[in-house]
């Protein structure tokens, strides 16, 4: 007998803390069902989706594209460089327009933290909003695909030791993941340059030097240095970063046999992660990309149902 996962229904997906544990697990399990070939049963004949990306993206943008097309949605193209944004149109007015045109769901990535507040308070904007990343704020859909990848590997989160390593202060992926991993029972550790770590993260886990963590953890989650969110005043050496804070081949050799390496990508090879490890046996980076499509199908289904 095949037991179907519980159907989750959401108006928007903006942050991970707004989700209940039941919703998180429901979305992960539904993502797994889509991966095994499950089909969506739409309630209307036609749905419109648009992807409004105001910051660069490859995986999030294109995996939403693929997820939308797999679900049979009509995808309304939008390119901020050729839209009325260039005439000074605000994000609010762009989304208002999409909603007025009948778009059901807008996936938005924007450089401003909490950009979505004014959109969801609007009485006129009707469409659902999915946060595809807000500045250094949150990245809830990346978090869900990361959780799906960990769950697929270990079958649970309880007491799993997960290290989040790198530019934590500026990483929205780190912010979303630390909150949800702790909530689901994992033990979170941090490592990386101390100047990019903040004491406010101590409620979720503890900072340790990478060499003390490497042989203990089940999941090593490496992060890119978010240069675009730095003021450019600090000097940066790729070699020194890899040596001091990166996962080198030598360090990875000390990991437990079952331990895996994750990274939200784009990976700066030989900076935070040694090149041979990116597609090595422990790496789940390609799986993360693939799972991104399926978990995003589950998220789209939840806001459209
Ligand atoms: N792709 C992820 C993000 O948009 C990670 C990164 O850019 O480093 O936050």
UniProtKB/TrEMBL annotation:
GO terms for biological process: 'de novo' pyrimidine nucleobase biosynthetic process; 'de novo' UMP biosynthetic process; amino acid metabolic process. GO terms for cellular component: cytosol. Keywords: Pyrimidine biosynthesis, Transferase. The keyword Metal-binding does not apply. Carbamoyl phosphate binds at residues 59-60, 109, 139, 142, 265-266. GO terms for molecular function: amino acid binding; aspartate carbamoyltransferase activity. Pathway: Pyrimidine metabolism; UMP biosynthesis via de novo pathway; (S)-dihydroorotate from bicarbonate: step 2/3. Residues 11-152 form the Aspartate/ornithine carbamoyltransferase carbamoyl-P binding domain. It catalyses: carbamoyl phosphate + L-aspartate = N-carbamoyl-L-aspartate + phosphate + H(+). It is an enzyme of class 2 (transferase). L-aspartate binds at residues 87, 172, 224. Transmembrane segments: none annotated. PROSITE patterns: CARBAMOYLTRANSFERASE. Residues 159-302 form the Aspartate/ornithine carbamoyltransferase Asp/Orn-binding domain. Its EC number is 2.1.3.2. The keyword rRNA-binding does not apply. Belongs to the aspartate/ornithine carbamoyltransferase superfamily. ATCase family. Heterododecamer (2C3:3R2) of six catalytic PyrB chains organized as two trimers (C3), and six regulatory PyrI chains organized as three dimers (R2). Catalyzes the condensation of carbamoyl phosphate and aspartate to form carbamoyl aspartate and inorganic phosphate, the committed step in the de novo pyrimidine nucleotide biosynthesis pathway. This is Aspartate carbamoyltransferase. It comes from Enterococcus saccharolyticus 30_1. The gene is pyrB.
